[in-house]
């Protein structure tokens, strides 16, 4: 701990010519406590705290209560300080300013307190004098003069990169957003769902996915896609379910009387290119065009048929020639 500011208590005969500020021992990471050198009513005390620090002190636990009392100096003539718990009506619940908490320790109040002795004791003072009431609370009229106890927040906009800053007596803590970690929530955190088909790498304020071959996208969620293959002469590609993504296959189907030359299947590769040499559709006798092959086959068939008729039925000229010879 270190002490900030030049503080000393004024004697009864001295005039306070310095600003009414003084700082307590502070922790290195958490909030700091401060107090006034002048007594003032509760509303003025809160205004003093808000103008010079963050707000009037808000006690969140018995541990903090005891810690605060151990730091506050004992003012012999008036050992009382305003704290930030109040209410507006006798039937209301005591609430802390700022966070609206209703925390009150089992032994926070002094003996026989709060008693609302004047029916309008709606503010609370804390005793720092020695004895059994040290650190105890008492309800008091808000118009009575007491010293202010303030705190200064150490949380800033830059305290937590991707989280919410929370302060305690001894440090600040960052409550990180989902997917982030680190003392300042500065590191993105990989989870099982960070990368669909890849490996997650943590970086400052982000995560990066190293995708498996054949996948892309910021989460490796999209399979690489190949363009639809161009149909060759005398054939058509058929792709299963119309899918042309990584590792999918397309089958070449040739027209009637035409054969597939090469492997009939092609596979979509990791880079979006179809694998291997493309198959072709070709007839066994070298014909490429199906209809030309059919025409040739028909022509050959007709020639063969004519030859058979010629051999079976000789021409009239040939028969007359044979008859004249006889």
Automatic annotation (TrEMBL):
Regions crossing the membrane: none
UniProt-listed InterPro entries: C-type_lectin-like (IPR001304), C-type_lectin-like/link_sf (IPR016186), C-type_lectin_CS (IPR018378), CTDL_fold (IPR016187), EGF (IPR000742), Sushi/SCR/CCP_sf (IPR035976), Sushi_SCR_CCP_dom (IPR000436)
Protein name as annotated: L-selectin isoform X2
Keywords: Disulfide bond, EGF-like domain, Signal, Sushi
Domain C-type lectin: residue ranges: 28-151
Superkingdom of origin: Eukaryota
Disulfide pattern: 190-200, 211-220, 254-281
SUPFAM superfamilies: C-type lectin-like, Complement control module/SCR domain, EGF/Laminin
Domain Sushi as annotated: residue spans: 224-283
Limits of the EGF-like domain: 186-221
């Amino acid at each position: 701990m270190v002490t900030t500011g030049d503080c000393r208590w004024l004697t009864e005969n001295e005039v306070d010519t310095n600003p009414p500020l003084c700082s307590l021992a502070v922790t290195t990471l958490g909030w700091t406590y401060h107090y006034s050198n002048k007594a003032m009513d509760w509303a003025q005390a809160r205004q003093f705290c808000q103008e010079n620090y963050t707000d009037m002190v808000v006690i969140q636990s018995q541990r903090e209560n005891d810690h605060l009392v151990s730091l506050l100096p004992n003012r012999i003539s008036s050992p009382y300080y305003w704290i930030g718990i109040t209410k507006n009506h006798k039937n209301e619940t005591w609430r802390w300013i700022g966070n609206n908490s209703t925390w009150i320790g089992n032994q926070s109040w002094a003996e026989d307190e709060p008693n609302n002795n004047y029916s309008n004791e709606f503010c609370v003072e804390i005793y720092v004098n020695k004895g059994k009431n040290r650190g105890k609370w008492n309800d008091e009229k808000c118009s009575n003069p007491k010293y202010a106890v303030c705190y200064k927040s150490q949380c800033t906009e830059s305290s937590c990169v991707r989280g919410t800053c929370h302060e305690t007596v001894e440090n600040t803590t960052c409550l990180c957003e989902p997917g982030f970690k680190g003392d300042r929530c500065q590191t993105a955190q990989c989870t099982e769902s960070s990368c669909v088909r890849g490996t997650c790498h943590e970086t400052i304020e982000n995560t990066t996915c190293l995708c498996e071959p054949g996948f892309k996208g910021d989460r490796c969620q999209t399979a690489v896609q190949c363009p639809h293959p161009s149909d060759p002469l005398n054939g058509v590609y058929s792709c299963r379910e119309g899918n042309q993504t990584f590792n999918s296959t397309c089958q070449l189907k040739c027209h009637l009387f035409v054969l597939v030359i090469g492997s009939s299947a092609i596979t979509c590769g990791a880079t979006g290119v179809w694998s291997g040499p493309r198959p072709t559709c070709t007839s066994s006798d070298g014909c490429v065009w199906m209809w030309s092959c059919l025409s040739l086959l028909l022509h050959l068939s007709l020639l063969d048929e004519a030859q058979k008729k010629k051999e079976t039925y000789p021409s009239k000229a040939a028969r007359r020639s044979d008859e004249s010879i006889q």
